[in-house]
Amino acid sequence: MTSKKKLLKNARVYLILDREVAGKRKMNVLLREAIRGGIDMVQYRDKTSSCKDMIQEARKLLKIARKHSILFVINDNCEVAKSIDADGVHIGQDDVSPAVARAILGTKKIIGYSCHNLKDLKSAQKDTVDYYGFGPVFATKTKPQVHAKGKKRLQEFLKNAKKPVFAIGGITEKNLIQFENIKNIQFAICRDICRAKNIQEKVKKIKDGLTHVSGIKESCKK
Questions:
Q1: pTM of the model
Q2: What angle (nearest 5°) sits at the alpha carbon of residue 141, between those of residues 140 and 145?
Q3: Burial class (CB in 10 A: 0-12, 13-18, 19+), 221
Q4: Residues 179-211: pLDDT tens digits?
Q5: What domains appear along the chain, each with residue ranges and CATH number?
Q6: Residue 101: closest CA among 121, 135, 75
Q7: Cβ(143)–Cβ(136) under 8 Å?
Q8: Rounded to an integer, what distance in angstroms lies between the CA atom of residue 70 and that of residue 88?
């Protein structure tokens, strides 16, 4: 198992660093505060900037992530991920296929894939995907057009997945308790961290909240 795969397997709080959600906040400041709080992994998501501006920002963020041994993944754009030597890419159902992403990035990079149901998972498990994002578990302002899947479908997905699964969509510090006793679950969080008044404190509270979730107590004590 490579170092990246170990970091991925042990990642419990995965920050989706979204430019639109972050608003006027500086992305590098937001990331530093989140790292101080204890995030394990970050995905840089920017749907509005040009590739040139995205690359410029991503390089700065990657430098911060590398300094703290945090996995750094680019949302959607394989070419940006390749150009800055990011740790990988996260793609969705409407992006390039996992096979194409792998061809662009090579075998040593991480590829994450968004799934909404077991049909998506069945298709994805034929490809060289390293982890799955399942959701939205709850309703989310980030993707209001997509219906919430709920905990029951999440549990079905977890039982069938052979790779790490990050629950995503409306995950907050306050609703983590709803995942109590669900095994082998990891969390991708966007708005609750990006919009927090005190980002460092918010992440710490999320990490503390994970002590109620079965199977990850030991990881949260480090």
A1: 0.92
A2: 80
A3: exposed
A4: 988 888 999 999 999 999 999 999 999 999 998
A5: 3-221 (3.20.20.70)
A6: 75
A7: yes
A8: 12
